[in-house]
Amino acid sequence: MRTLGPGSLASLLKILLDIAIVVMWGVLGLTSLIMVLAMVAGLFRLTGLGPELPEPILQFLQLDLAVALPMAMAAFVAVTFIVDRLRRIMATLIAGDPFVPQNAGHLRAIAIAIIVYQVIRYGVNGVVALIFTVFGRPVETGVSIQPEFALNVGAWIAVLALFVLSEVFREGARLRDEQKLTI
């Protein structure tokens, strides 16, 4: 099987990425709706205005969801952004022209998205530990909740590799453009 061009491995991967991005937008829409419901339920509960929500809904919209959902949404936004950029790169591979200047920008944007996500993840881990400490959340089954700093070495190596690859694509695009100008 060919790797570039129509009917290639790249086109199969693009189809999978197209399906993934539709599913991801659906998940983002659903989690956004749940976040809005959680905020409205919290406002109703704090102010005493509006109808009292049924107990099963209140249990669903408790502290665990309020802490976990924004982190999950940040992860989904980052992954959706990365999948979109990969789809754009696959489109150039299907066209048979991978060395376009846009691909260097796409790879650089993916690297920056991974950096932003990692920094947000470190911050959220600290905030979650702080929230559990401040609100005195009981620890169940003897598990302790402590702020930990776990460096994801694989993600940081991927960031470095993506920056190098973006420069390779930028240079390849420059050489291709230069070659077009030669007679």
Report on the architecture of this protein.
- The chain has one domain.
- The protein is mainly α.
- Helix 3 (63-94) packs antiparallel against helix 4 (101-134).
- It has five helices and no strands.
In a nutshell, what does this entry contain?
The chain has 183 residues and is mainly α. Helix content is 77%, strand content 0%. Helix 3 runs antiparallel to helix 4.
Order of helices and strands: HHHHH
Number of strands: 0
- Percent helix, as a range, is over 70%
Pairing-aware structural class of the strands and helices?
A: mainly alpha
Q: What portion of residues belong to β-strands?
A: under 5%
List keywords for this structure.
0% strand; 5 helices; 183 residues
List the helices and strands and how they pair.
Blueprint: H1 9-47, H2 55-60, H3 63-94, H4 101-134, H5 153-181
Helix pairs in contact: 1-3, 3-4, 4-5
